[in-house]
Amino acid sequence: MTTASEKALVSSIWKKAADFTEEWGEDALLRLLTVFPQTKTYFTNVDITPGSAKLRAHGGKVMTALAQAAADIDNISSVLSSLSDLHAYILRVDPVNFKLLAHCILVVLANRLPAEFTPEAHVACDKFLVRVAEVLSQKYR
Ligand code: ZNH
């Protein structure tokens, strides 16, 4: 369960992230592809070399979707409904990968917002990303 104070922490952190979606998104994706190289297989359509415009744009899209979900945290499943279809029916990303990306996103947030990313904010953001992963993988069967 996410408490009201956890929702406030998630909201405050993602309001900040919303100003840096491409930069932080690229950082998270580069970490994902470096630390968990098996994830590269999904990105046949995206030039994943560091500094690529497409990688940056893709990072921006992922972080923007998360910022939108955080801004409407009680309605995550409707906010992410079309992305849920995309990941389940078209991309067929194995749901284990959501955990790997979530880990990388938490590292980026900790790195970029060292003062705000307290242990309490860490828990709140972790729960938020678990919820997002549930929504994105709920249509798999
Ligand atoms: Zn994903 C896409 C989000 C996870 C893979 N994605 C995408 C997009 C978005 C997203 C927004 C775009 C869409 C359009 O364009 O319309 N994701 C997301 C999120 C998450 C995710 C929010 C969580 C958190 N993904 C993921 C993972 C993976 C992926 C984990 C693997 C590993 N995606 C993907 C791909 C794509 C996407 C491959 C497509 C790209 C291109 O461009 O092609």
From TrEMBL:
<dbReference type="InterPro" id="IPR050056">
    <property type="entry name" value="Hemoglobin_oxygen_transport"/>
</dbReference>
<dbReference type="GO" id="GO:0048821">
    <property type="term" value="P:erythrocyte development"/>
</dbReference>
<dbReference type="InterPro" id="IPR012292">
    <property type="entry name" value="Globin/Proto"/>
</dbReference>
<dbReference type="GO" id="GO:0005833">
    <property type="term" value="C:hemoglobin complex"/>
</dbReference>
<keyword id="KW-0349">Heme</keyword>
<dbReference type="InterPro" id="IPR002338">
    <property type="entry name" value="Hemoglobin_a-typ"/>
</dbReference>
<keyword id="KW-0561">Oxygen transport</keyword>
<keyword id="KW-0479">Metal-binding</keyword>
<dbReference type="GO" id="GO:0020037">
    <property type="term" value="F:heme binding"/>
</dbReference>
<dbReference type="GO" id="GO:0015671">
    <property type="term" value="P:oxygen transport"/>
</dbReference>
<protein>
    <submittedName>
        <fullName>Hemoglobin subunit alpha 2</fullName>
    </submittedName>
</protein>
<feature type="domain" description="Globin">
    <location>
        <begin position="1"/>
        <end position="141"/>
    </location>
</feature>
<dbReference type="InterPro" id="IPR009050">
    <property type="entry name" value="Globin-like_sf"/>
</dbReference>
<dbReference type="InterPro" id="IPR002339">
    <property type="entry name" value="Hemoglobin_pi"/>
</dbReference>
<dbReference type="GO" id="GO:0005506">
    <property type="term" value="F:iron ion binding"/>
</dbReference>
<dbReference type="GO" id="GO:0031838">
    <property type="term" value="C:haptoglobin-hemoglobin complex"/>
</dbReference>
<dbReference type="GO" id="GO:0019825">
    <property type="term" value="F:oxygen binding"/>
</dbReference>
<keyword id="KW-0408">Iron</keyword>
<comment type="similarity">
    <text>Belongs to the globin family.</text>
</comment>
<keyword id="KW-0813">Transport</keyword>
<dbReference type="GO" id="GO:0005344">
    <property type="term" value="F:oxygen carrier activity"/>
</dbReference>
<dbReference type="InterPro" id="IPR000971">
    <property type="entry name" value="Globin"/>
</dbReference>
<dbReference type="Pfam" id="PF00042">
    <property type="entry name" value="Globin"/>
</dbReference>
